[in-house]
Amino acid sequence: MDQIWKRVKSLLKEKVPGHSYRMWIEPIEFCEDCADTIVLSCPNPFSRKRISEQYGKLIESALCDAAGQPLKMNLIVGAAHPADSPENPEERQMKLPEMDLPARGGQLLRQDYTFDQFVVGKNSDFAYTAALSLAARKLGNQNALYLHSKTGLGKSHLSQAVGHHILKAFPNERVYYITAEDFMNEMTGAYRSDNIHQFKDKYRHNCDVLLLEDVHFLSGKNGTQEELSNTLESLMNSNKKVIYSSCYLPSEIPKVNDKLKSRLSCGLISKIDLPDYKVRLRILKKAARSGGFALPDIVLQYLASELVDDVRQLKSGLIGVAARASLLGSAVDLELARNVVDDIVTRREQITLDSIKQLVCKYYKVTLADLTSRSRRQAIVRPRQVAMYLSRRYTDHSLQTIGRSFNRYHATTLHALKAVEKGLKENGPFQKHVDFLSQRLEKGWG
Fold first, then answer.
1. 3-state secondary structure at position 174
2. Which domain holds residue 401?
3. Which of 1, 16, 106, 216 could form a disulfide with 178 if both were Cys (CB 3.0 to 4.6 A apart)?
4. Which CATH number does the domain housing residue 316 bear?
5. What CATH code is carried by the domain that includes residue 35?
6. Does 152 belong to an annotated binding site?
7. Is 159 one of the annotated binding-site residues?
8. Is 155 known as a binding-site position?
9. How many domains does the chain have?
10. Does any domain span residue 372?
């Protein structure tokens, strides 16, 4: 039977993509055979779940072809106990404490951002595999991963899942999860308090895994770029692990010095694309189970077919349907779901670059010519930045397209986004202005 399994692996190697085969199929080993069942072993519960879901039917089909008779597969973790045994402690899901985990430094890791909670599809298969491989020490000499996607598609989830996995498997590892902006602020504070040596020691010598979010924020921040470049060089020389995440590829981030751009580009770059219908439906079903929402399949199918922008929009629709049904005391049906989807989708479809410009001009009492002019007066610059921010938030246009629409380069657009985001964090009058404009757009002003 061992020879049959070797033939099966040869067959699978031709049918499964190379990186998937090396990650999932190659580690599987033959254990024993029992009548019409072959017992195989895999390294851990994550592997067993993934292999069973994605490759179970393919493996059993190959087994039948190789053996010339129907064979069932029994996949176990390790070689000691069958996977079906209720007494096998390794088979039970590894549960994290009911709280967000501290990452030994930086921000907290969200409790639900684990590999087990991530819904994998064709849009994210490579990114998921790469992240899990790095966390499980299976990427060889490759210790850096750059996760790239639009907002709301799961790059933060995967980044934090690496942290969770490493803290569970290697509890003595020092995992730091931090945004690029917080890294810059911490460095600035260290200089001001004359603690820069302590700051450098923290990240260069007392960090084993660095999870760095939103690296595009460092555009134009020359001092922080230099410090981060030196930190990354120290970490890489010490064989430490670094996971970056960003909405942009390293080559797309303007005003980044060559040294840092080289560091960001030398890791494995993996993109997460928009999920297709099947993946969206699985995401909704999983979110419904996790949230305790009892929604009919036909409603979930409708939401999956209509809400196509990102994962956050999907979950917003799910929560909206459940909340509306609860508040109105009505049944969850297609009519209710359509009303929720109309609120989310229809208004957004009506939002264009022109409609955003018109609203901003009316609100700030400026002209369209002012927005596209070369004027640097604050009374013009701020409305222009807000208009660019709303354009990025409510349309699918690229930075280049938005920039051209305002007679600017994409680097200026990125600077405008950062300026508005910084203003929003101050939670003052400016945030209320932007919230008001956002509400007007979503409700269909005019």
1. coil
2. 353-443
3. 106
4. 1.10.8.60
5. 3.30.300.180
6. yes
7. no
8. yes
9. 4
10. yes
